[in-house]
Structures are given as C-alpha cells and as structure tokens.
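In response to the reviewer comment on reproducibility (Comment 2.3), we provide here a single inverse folding case reported in full, input and output, so that an independent group could reproduce the run without further information from us. The structure tokens appear first.
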C-alpha cells in the first residue's frame, strides 16, 4: 500500500503538467499514461547530459520505466537546462513534489543543495539523490556507490589487456566523485602490473564547462593519449565518454565504458567491437528500489550504498572476447573476492 501522505492528483493537474514543468526551468521528456491509480509515482530530474547519454542518466530512466510498469502509476522525467542555478533545480524538484510525485530523485551530485531545500519544504515526500552522501534529512535517501571498487576491476582488465603498457584515463570533471574512479583504476592497474603507465586527463574543472556533456572534448583527450601509445582508455565522463569510445574505435584500441554496459548500448553499437568492458553501477536498481520502498510504505532514507558485495557495482561481460579470456576472468574474480573480503582496500583518492 502507498503511504497515506501520498497526494491524489486531480485531472486538472495532469492537464497543466507541461506548463508547470517548463515554468521551473526544464521540460518533461516522458510522462507515464497509466491511469490505474489515482496518484503519481516516481519522478526524476536528470544530471548534465540528460537522457540519451547511454550511461548515467539513461540508467536512471531504466529504473523509472521499471517502476512505472510494475506499479502502474504516472511518472515524470525532466531534462536540465543550460546554465541553470541551484534555485532552478530546487524549483524543479519542488514543482514535482507539489504535483504529487513521490519519490522525487535528483540524478547527480549537483542536486545536493536543491534536494536539501525541496525536502525541507515537502517533508511528506521522499526525495533521493544519486551520487551524494551529504544530505542529512529524515525524508532523503542518499543513493551512493563504491565506484572505486568497479574501477579497480577495470584496472585489472586494462593491465591484463594492454600490449603497449600505456593506458589512459579520461575523467569528465575534476571533482572528488571522479577521483574515486581514477584512484581505483590506477590501483587495479598497479597491483596487476606495476610496469604499466597510466595517463590521466580531466576534461574540465566544472560541469558547467561541459566536462560531462561534450563528446568532442572526450574524443580529443583520448586521441592525445592514444598518440602517446595508450592502447586501453577508461572513461568516466558521462556523455563526453562517447567521444572517448569513438576515438578508441577509430584507432582500433580498447575502450572501457562506465556506469552502464556500454557494449550493449544501441547508440554505440558500431563501436562495440572495441568496448572491452564497462565499470558498471546499478543506478537503475537504486532508483527502482527507492520507488518500491515508497510503494511499500517503508521509504528508504539516509545513505544507501551499492558495492561489489551487494552486486550493484561490477564489470560488464557482454563482449565475447572479454568474457572468453579465461586468464583475464580469473584475475578479475580473484581481485573481486579480495575486495569483498577486505584483503584489498581500494583507495578513493
């Protein structure tokens, strides 16, 4: 049963949805049409790059779709706008809560201030934020992941796959979250083969400069690393990562994807031969689980972490060449077991 505090939304509110959402600095890209319940369910507000990034945001959308199909309620998902402020984000989240959506999730650390503000204004609505653990509120779930653990395994895979003993890392924005990816990756490489050199580059200092939303920047960075003999390039760069994958494919070297299984993404299908694996985090599951907890009347709050032990981070094995490499798979499985047991402590910076 849904919580008593869920707001039943009248038909008039549905008719005015598009106007209300556009007024708060974003556009609704998808609104569920199911009328089997008299109230609304999950709503998400995308991070930089928006839907179609074949990565982080698309994973959140997959979680929304699963919730919509299973619970038979209305959903909404909203795109960011260029140059928006924290106030714009907060207004977007507050508008969704006011209309009766519950839970409301901000996808990405950039929503921290906005989620905190909206949650205080709507205490009967459950809010979630992906990739931030700083909000302390009774009605907020901080959906975070041990990205460094999956990145360590990616480092093992890269070190086992390189022939030139030069590997690249491309981070979207120079922030602590992406430092976790780099730290785990470098540690995995070094522990596997200390002779391998890792070239690191961050595309921008801030998200506003396009570090997560500029495939051309990713492509240029990867090309520079490949010119320096890198034959495996790992990217943690959102939409910009598509450019990294394109550059790897053009130069017939390995790319390692991030967040989603990028080998399986339709938009990247022409490059998949060169996508060795992806360091995944199950944002879809985290989003769906929060929606289910609200649906069950026991909303998640506080820090909700996904890691190797829970199965919510890991390496994708869709590429047959990767999956069929017995020696590589054994090395990855050994590293995974040691991380889960605590024998290997993975760095976060």
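Designed residues, in position order:
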């Amino acid at each position: 049963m849904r919580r008593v505090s869920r707001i039943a939304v009248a038909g008039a509110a549905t008719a005015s949805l598009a106007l209300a959402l556009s007024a708060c600095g974003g556009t609704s890209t998808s609104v569920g049409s199911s009328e089997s319940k008299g109230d609304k369910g999950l709503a998400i507000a995308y991070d930089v790059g928006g839907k179609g990034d074949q990565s982080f945001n698309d994973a959140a959308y997959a979680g929304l779709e699963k919730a919509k199909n299973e619970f038979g309620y209305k959903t909404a998902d909203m795109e960011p706008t260029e140059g928006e402020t924290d106030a714009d984000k907060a207004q977007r989240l507050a508008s969704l809560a006011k209309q009766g959506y519950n839970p409301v999730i901000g996808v990405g650390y950039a929503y921290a201030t906005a989620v905190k503000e909206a949650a205080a204004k709507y205490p009967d609505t459950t809010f979630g934020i992906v990739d931030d653990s700083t909000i302390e509120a009774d009605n907020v779930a901080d959906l975070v992941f041990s990205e460094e653990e999956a990145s360590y395994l990616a480092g093992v895979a890269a070190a086992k796959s390189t022939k030139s003993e030069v590997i690249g890392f491309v981070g979207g924005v120079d922030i602590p979250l992406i430092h976790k990816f780099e730290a785990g990756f470098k540690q995995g490489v070094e522990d596997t083969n200390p002779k391998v050199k890792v070239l690191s580059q961050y595309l921008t200092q801030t998200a506003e400069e396009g570090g997560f939303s500029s495939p051309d920047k990713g492509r240029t960075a990867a090309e520079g690393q490949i010119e320096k003999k890198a034959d495996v390039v790992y990217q943690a760069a959102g939409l910009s990562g598509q450019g990294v994958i394109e550059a790897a494919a053009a130069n017939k070297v390995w790319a390692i994807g991030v967040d989603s299984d990028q080998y399986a993404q339709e938009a990247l299908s022409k490059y998949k031969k060169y996508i060795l694996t992806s360091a995944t985090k199950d944002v879809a599951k985290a989003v769906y689980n929060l929606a289910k907890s609200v649906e069950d009347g026991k909303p998640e709050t506080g820090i909700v972490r996904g890691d190797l032990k829970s199965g919510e981070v890991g390496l994708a094995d869709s590429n047959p060449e990767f999956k069929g490499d017995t020696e590589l798979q054994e090395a990855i499985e050994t590293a995974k077991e040691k991380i889960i047991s605590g024998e290997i402590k993975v760095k976060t910076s």
